[in-house]
Input
Amino acid sequence: MDKAAPSGWLGFLKNQPGVKPQELEHIGLEPWLAKQEGQVSKGAVSQYIESQQPQINEVRKGGSNKARNDLERAYESGSIGADEYLQKEAALPVRVPTSFASYQLRGGSNYGETLLTLPKEQFEKPIGAGPFLQVPYAGEYHSTHWPDNPNTLLHTRHNDRHVIANGEILPSLHLEEIQSDWHQAGRKQGYVSGDELPAGHTVKEYPYPGIWSVFRPSGAIVAQGSDRSTAIANARGLAGGNMGVPDAPFKTTWPDLALKRMLHRAATEMNPDGTPKYHALSWTAGKEQAERYPDPANEHGLHEFYNTNLVNKMNALTKKYGVRVGKGELPGSGNFEDAQFKGPVSLHHNDIFDLANKADSGEITRQLRDIAGQVSQGVPLARAVQNFGSHESARLLGGELHMTNKTGHIIKITPELRAAAAKGFPLFTVGGAVGLPTYKMMQTQPVEHDPF
Output
């Protein structure tokens, strides 16, 4: 329809498949429509939604060392000179180091971490739309996991691996973890805006002019800032501060945002020859998550989130394309105690270090270096490979690693699903089922580093 009364537009949009009430709340559509008089055009609604959608930045960390390793090999072999090496080396993107590579199942490669963040400016935007745009101070949320990346809305940790689904071996973008520190803190502490402070807390200019401090009831300083509002914002932005956290969008739909973003990446990334890089998106099951983070208080929640919530959300997303999440094997992901290395009895640690320096994957380089370190300390090669290796690193050492595979959740990317994911889904789509923009596919600023 080209025109409708405000109530007509609101009812129409609420009934569209895939459009969630929280999306409309985020952009303040209902209050805006309430202020309109008479018939409202489709163009006016579209323009308003376009102007109010949240901006999301993406930060990628990690990735493959292949380009740098290839360049170093070319220089070492003499096929390029020092000048050409320096010129090409300077053009390579800086590889942003990852923080939690050790928290992943064996058998993966190309480990990376992707953060979706909200820009600081979004919190300074004048009042005019949804609640998260009405925060009148430059509030920032600082997670203990990502202290150098303020306002991290959610993060995913991922790697590349092959999975086995219904007997078919598929290259997969595998998600080791999906988490929102911000909204987990908000669920526990609550969300606040403006200059609110919990009872008993005070703020004053102390200990010097131009320095403001927030005090707990005990008199301890929580945080400081250059002015009153900044000091309060800094106090609330501290993870674990129990003072509430700045308001933010996607309170309950951040898992949807993460799945849709990573499914889009899995569907659109290509190999150098133009063929699809991935034919599946997979994630680690709740059992392995609970083993990774052994806390009885959280065990049930981890099982429910990874085995039920994410599965249901993905099935709802892909139902119309005839694809459902299934369980399958994750080759090379077995436990240390199950692994058996069959290959050379011994290798000199320097030879293993040489292999590590030539590896195409940062994860394989790390594995081989760990193995070499153990061998240099007298640990038998087989035990070192069982402790730190994978199928790929074992192959580079001239052997094979046998272990019992773990299982994970897998969604196969069919041609129809690939085409749909490339266009985008409601929640951050241009166009959508009703020809109106909801959220752009990803309204990104330049990424910190895109290694892919």
